[in-house]
Design a protein that fits this description.
about 425 residues, alpha/beta, UDP-n-acetylglucosamine1-carboxyvinyl-transferase, Chain, 2 domains, binds ligand EPZ
């Protein structure tokens, strides 16, 4: 397995291009299953999760061609041969559950393996299933699979009132509702930009959707959907991640393709910490000129609140802030696994349940550390950028799931970082 070696050095300066959103692409790709017509995605990120979703769609008989070095995904589900998503693929990536709604809506039946949990939590899919049942689906859970059947006339529009916000359940329900007969209302729907991006793509395919981006989405089912070409929205989590590089090291970095509205709650916290953020014609510029950042308290919430996917990275910044910060993780039950690794680098962090109290230190010290999940892996790299000496991050395969060309992007703004085979 590869390792990434980061050597703490001075301020960073330059530009970092931000890719298309992994979490938008992972729901836009299953949308091809809703239509016989071709669906083409541009600005797609080159990530292992995207390759996993490609394999899953191909296992169903869909055509998926990665063009222009993977930035364009040309897909067609005209001749599907299977409506069964096997465990051997689903276990690699829980977003595989997002083929359930589309398969059920278009074919009236589907068998999808239940995704396992993962490092950050049990991550059940009960809200996905309840939403489909509200549209008339009959679901039978056995042998680790969801065996789903629609009523004889197909799914029917219904009222889905989510007890709490779920991004994936909103996406599954939204896609299924586009072909259900009648009107579906999703209450307490997720408002993430990736939901809006999915709705925009479905509308191009002919879906009748209103209210996307608010907590109530109304869908009028249609008989069939057509094809479309859709540009994947910019990845707000990659954007926030790279905005933290100059915040941690000092300097000035422009993240190309990003816009502040994608990360407004995050930017408010950076401002509170004393980091200057401004939108430019090409993206978002972050500058940290002098002095230490100030401690801030952070609570993760569904969009438009502070994103859970930026919590680990923000903790890396707060490890060397002036004062004490409290981070509250309210979305996942076990998302502080980066804390013990940061402590190995000299951070002072006390984790109690869903709260992590971080007391800032002057400087972290480089150390061998281990990535435990996607966002934890990149928080260790960020911490290493300003630490004294070398930080060696192992198990970087976690990183490859969500960040393309990390070494190239960070060395392009002056970071001392390289990827090596495990010594
Ligand atoms: C999406 O996961 C993202 N993944 C996650 O990003 C992100 O952290 C999460 O949304 C929250 O924003 C993708 O989009 C592929 P949820 P998802 O359903 O849809 C519980 C990353 O790093 N829940 O909003 O799985 C669940 O366990 C990844 O890119 C149920 O109990 O998240 C969690 O505690 C990590 N039952 C909470 O709700 C359900 O049926 C929010 O989960 C569904 C979810």
């Amino acid at each position: 397995m590869d390792q990434i070696i980061v050597t703490g050095n001075g301020p960073l300066n330059g530009q970092i291009p931000i890719a298309g959103a992994k979490n938008a692409c992972l729901t836009l790709m299953p949308a091809t299953l809703l239509s016989e017509e071709p669906l083409t995605l541009t600005n797609a990120p080159r990530l292992s999760d995207i390759r996993t979703m490609t394999l899953l769609l191909q296992s169903l008989g869909a055509e998926v061609q990665a063009l222009q070095e993977g930035q364009v995904l040309a897909m067609s589900s005209h001749d599907l041969t299977s409506q069964r998503a096997d465990y051997d693929i689903v276990r690699k990536m829980r977003a595989s559950i997002l083929v359930l709604g589309p398969l059920l809506a278009r074919f009236g039946h589907a068998e999808v393996s239940l995704p396992g949990g993962c490092a950050i939590g049990a991550r059940p899919v009960d809200l996905h299933l309840k939403a489909l049942e509200a549209m008339g689906a009959e679901l039978d859970l056995r042998d680790g699979y969801v065996h789903a059947k629609a009523p004889a006339g197909g799914l029917r529009g219904g009222l889905v009132d989510f007890p709490f916000v779920s991004v994936g359940a909103t996406e599954n329900a939204l896609m299924a509702a586009t072909l259900a007969k009648g009107t579906t209302v999703l209450k307490n729907a997720a408002r993430e930009p990736e939901i809006v991006d999915l709705a925009r793509c479905l509308q191009k395919m002919g879906a009748q959707i209103d209210g996307e981006g608010t907590s109530e989405i109304t869908i009028q089912g249609v008989d069939r959907l057509g094809g479309a070409t859709h540009r994947v929205v910019t990845d707000r989590i990659e954007l926030g991640t790279y905005m933290l590089a100059p915040a941690i090291c000092g300097g000035e970095v422009e993240c190309l393709g990003g816009t502040i509205d994608l990360v407004s709650a995050f930017c408010e916290k950076l401002d509170e910490a004393g980091i200057h953020v401004e939108e430019t014609p090409n993206g978002v510029k972050v500058a940290r000129r002098n002095g230490r950042v100030s401690a801030v308290d952070v609570t993760t919430e569904p969009f438009p609140g502070f994103p859970t996917d930026l919590q680990a990275q923000m903790m890396a910044l707060l490890c060397t802030a002036e004062g004490t910060s409290v981070l509250e993780e309210k979305i996942f039950e076990n998302r502080f696994m980066h804390a013990p690794e940061l402590i190995r680098m000299g951070a002072q962090i006390d984790v109690q349940g869903g709260h992590a109290t971080v007391t800032g230190v002057d400087r972290l010290r480089g150390a061998p550390v281990m990535a435990t999940d996607l966002r934890a892996s990149v928080s260790l790299i960020l911490a290493g950028l300003a630490a004294e000496g070398d930080t060696v991050v192992s198990r970087v395969y976690h990183l490859d799931r969500g960040y393309e060309h990390v070494v190239r992007k960070l060395s392009g703004v002056g970071a001392r970082i390289e990827r090596v085979k495990e010594q």
